[in-house]
Structures are given as C-alpha cells and as structure tokens.
C-alpha cells in the first residue's frame, strides 16, 4: 500500500543518494537494479506518473509484468552483460514513454474532433 509521506524520513537520504534521487517529490519510482561481477551498480529509474496510490500500484504492476516478460526473452549472454541489459531496458522504457505520449495525443485529437464536429 502506498501512502503519502509528509515529513521526509532521514533514513531515506542514503537510499536517495545511492540511486541519484533528489528528494521524495520525485517519487513514486520503480527502480530496477543489479550488480555485475565487478560489483558495479546498474539501474534504471521509471517514473510512475499516476496521481492516486491505486493508479500508481496498477502502473507499477503493469511495469513489473512488462519488464519481467522482456527479461525472460533476453539471451543468457545478454543477461550476463548487465550494462547492455540495462541499456535494453532503457530502450524499452523510452518506447513505452513514446507510445504513451502518442496515445494521449491521439485521444486529445479524438476529443477535439468530436467537440468541433470535424
């Protein structure tokens, strides 16, 4: 369950620094991360843009399902190269963001057309 935090817990600051998060205002985020054989951290932050906790949960669930499906399709060789794997995840996130923007644009055009009768 996700609930708003009104006073930033000081224990969060360490975690924020670790993942390069400015403050709690940029939350909620889904952070996928892994360490490679040299203990180098690789991670990808995905912004959850929904307003309510229920919408954020649904978006989180959808993101996790899509990323899990994508990871299952990766070759064993790609899974061993964490840097390349996270670059692939970044491309996947970029494509999802672009399709979301396109979907919103198409919806806006449809509403405009119906409002104007065009």
From TrEMBL:
From which residue to which does any coiled coil extend?
50-77
Top-rank taxon of the source lineage equals: Bacteria
Which keywords describe this protein according to UniProt? Coiled coil
Name of the molecule in the record: Uncharacterized protein
